[in-house]
Design a protein that fits this description.
This protein is mainly alpha-helical. It has helices at about 5-20, 40-50, 55-70, 70-80, 90-105, 110-115, 120-145, 155-190, 200-235, 240-275, 290-319. The chain starts with a helix and ends with a helix.
């Protein structure tokens, strides 16, 4: 996928995440849990179609069967391209879980009877489906990495890095903005009658969001730099362009870690300075361990590429 197209997809994802987060209250009937998407919406659509009449009921039943059998049907297409592997046995399991999940989404009253909370129940069903799907893809990816040639591995890793960017965009514009809105709502609810004094607290709530989002912003930039490095490695892992890409990635990782830890320290210092004007204090130390681990891994990769180039040049000069 071209870089510009991927950037456009990420931008569209960001817009959708913001809209769904901001208008969550008005869409609560159709979006009770993010992890239930799109099964919840499919269930609502099939339920509406089923209640439209006899013909609609028959069509809804046929669509229900067809949708749930899609993972199993995929086996026939996979079999034409390659030999089936043990992990492919999870696809029929996905269909079985889909039958249960979509059926309960169509009949949310059954969820309330079984779990006492429709949103929680929908999240559980959605999470179960995604867990089986994730297990299939992880096992499939492991097989590809284990059996793939050295030239194929960078391509597979580029795809994985691209998927990471999708997650990072959600963490910034979905989960992050959702947390910000919840913090502001909690601040307002806990300080009724003092709204005119909450200006500084609003500012620090936004600053907290920016500090939390900053590591993921750097992660997105690092992913793009890493994908470019992998592309150069596929062409010639000892070329000057590959080493240059590795150097840029290393520099970006260093800056990312430095700015991340400094932003956390600066936020805590500002919070301490303006503590008398704040109605909501973030006392916990924010350490983005996942982001830091990702950056360190990218830094290690870039350094290894540069050192391999140096070792090859030394070996060539000896020969």
């Amino acid at each position: 996928m071209k870089r510009n197209v991927f950037i456009f997809i990420l931008a569209a994802e960001a817009v959708v995440c913001v809209l769904l987060t901001v208008f969550k209250a008005s869409l609560s009937a159709a979006f009770s849990a993010v992890i239930a998407f799109p099964f919840e919406q499919i269930g609502l659509g099939l339920r509406a179609l089923s209640l439209s009449g006899t013909a609609g009921n028959v069509l809804a039943f046929l669509l229900y069967i067809a949708i749930c059998l899609i993972p199993t049907g995929a086996l026939f297409f996979i079999r034409r391209k390659r030999i089936l592997q043990p992990e492919d046995g999870l696809l029929p399991v996905v269909s079985i879980v889909l039958f249960a999940a979509v059926y309960f989404m169509i009949n949310p009253g059954l969820i309330e009877d079984a779990m006492r909370s429709i949103p929680v129940g929908k999240a559980i069903f959605g999470g179960t489906v995604y867990s089986v799907v994730l297990a299939y893809f992880v096992l499939r990816i492991l097989r590809l990495f284990r059996a793939g040639s050295l030239k194929q591995l960078p391509r597979y890793l580029s795809v994985l890095l691209g998927l990471l960017n999708v997650v990072f965009v959600y963490l910034i514009f979905g989960a992050g903005i959702g947390t910000l809105m919840e913090d502001i709502s909690t601040l307002q609810a806990g300080n009724s009658g003092y709204e005119h004094l909450l200006g500084a607290s609003y500012v620090f709530a936004v600053l907290q969001y920016l500090v939390d989002a900053l590591p993921y912003v750097f992660d997105i930039l690092i992913v793009f730099a890493g994908i470019k490095l992998l592309g150069n490695m596929t062409t010639d892992r000892y070329s000057d362009e590959t080493v240059s890409s590795a150097s840029r990635l290393s520099m970006l990782c260093t800056k990312a870690l430095s700015i991340t830890v400094l932003s956390i320290a600066a936020f805590n210092l500002l919070q301490l300075i303006f503590v008398k004007h704040l109605f909501n204090i973030h006392a916990a130390l924010q350490i983005p361990l996942l982001s830091i681990a990702f950056v360190l891994a990218a830094l290690l990769l870039s350094r290894l590429v540069a050192e391999n180039k140096t070792l090859k040049e030394e070996n060539d000069s000896i020969i």
